[in-house]
Write a structure and sequence with these properties.
Strands 2, 4, 5, 6, 9, 10 and 11 form a seven-stranded mixed beta sheet that branches. The protein is mostly beta strands. The protein has no helices and eleven strands.
């Protein structure tokens, strides 16, 4: 399974961005749990949010605070992370990850994911 993350860019505080994570490799993406992580400058990777195979989602309550939503389009093998009300502290490289899951679970630890996409840079100016 290959993952392609896209949609990053330079925006102003308060703007929105939609990141995409598209899977290829002949997989049935609907059976995967997909997570998003980010690495802010000078910091470790942190969990942003994830969506289960049944479209249940959880987010990092420390900083998301209702601003982000997750959705998936199984026909396109794509999961979307919509980020609203962006703040300069959201500036980071965002990564998507996936793992095949027979259960309706969202994993929040990096080690729980098997496949990773390359990062996409999100820069929020003040």
């Amino acid at each position: 399974v290959q993952l392609q993350a896209s949609g990053g860019g330079l925006v102003q505080a308060g703007d929105s961005l939609r990141l995409s994570c598209t899977a290829s490799g002949g997989t049935t993406f609907s059976t995967y749990t997909v997570g998003w992580f980010r690495q802010c400058p000078g910091k470790d990777h942190e969990f942003v949010g994830g969506i289960s195979r049944n479209d249940d989602s959880i987010f990092n309550s420390a900083f998301v605070k209702g601003r982000f939503t997750l959705s998936r389009d199984n026909a396109k093998n794509t999961v979307y992370l919509l980020m609203n009300s962006l703040k300069p502290e959201d500036t980071a490289v965002y990564y998507c990850a996936a793992r095949l899951s027979s259960q309706n679970i969202v994993y929040s630890a990096r080690g729980d994911y098997e496949y990773w996409g390359q990062g996409t840079q999100v820069t929020v100016s003040s």
